[in-house]
Design a protein that fits this description.
The chain starts with a helix and ends with a strand. The protein contains 4 helices and 6 strands; from the N terminus they run αααββαββββ. The protein has one domain (25-155): Nuclear Transport Factor 2, Chain: A, CATH 3.10.450. It has a 6-stranded mixed sheet, covered by helices on one side. It is globular, with a radius of gyration of 20 Å. By secondary structure, the chain is α+β, with helices and mostly antiparallel strands.
Length: 159
Amino acid sequence: MEVSISSFFLLVFCLSVAPSAMAASAEDEVLQVMTNWFKAQNTNDYELMSSLWWHSPKTSQFSPWKSGAFLTEGWDVLAEDFKSFYKVPIGTYTHSVRHPKVMMLGDNVAITTGYNVGTVNPPAVKEQTTALVRGTFVVQKIGGKWLIVYEHSSMIPEK
C-alpha cells in the first residue's frame, strides 16, 4: 500500500512538471490575440479589446478609418477612439479575418497578417456593404502576455 501511494504522488509530480501536450504554441497564442480582437469588435467588448493592447505611449496604429492624420500614437489616444467606436449598436458592423498568418520574429515578438472583412449591416445602411482591408499587427510578449503594440490597416482597392 505504501508503494502505491508513493507511486501515485510520484506520477502526479511528474505530470505537473512535464510540458503539456495540450500547451499552446506561441503562434497559437498570438493568433488568439487576433481572434479576440475581432470578437471584441463584434460584441462591442471594450474591456476585452483594451486587454489586448499595450497601454503605452509607444503604441501606435495606422488606420484607413481616420480622417486627416492616419497615424495614431499612444494608448490614451487609441483608447478614446476605441471607446467611441464601441458605442455603435452591436450588429451594425461585423468583422472577420481571412487567411490569418503568424510570423514569429523571436521568442517575444510576432507579426500577424490577414485580410479583414468589415461588413456594415442594415439599418446602418440601406443594404449591406463590405470593405476588404489588409491588416497587420505587431504583437509583443510583455509581462508574460501577448499584447498588440502596433496595427496597420489599409483598404484593398475595388476592382
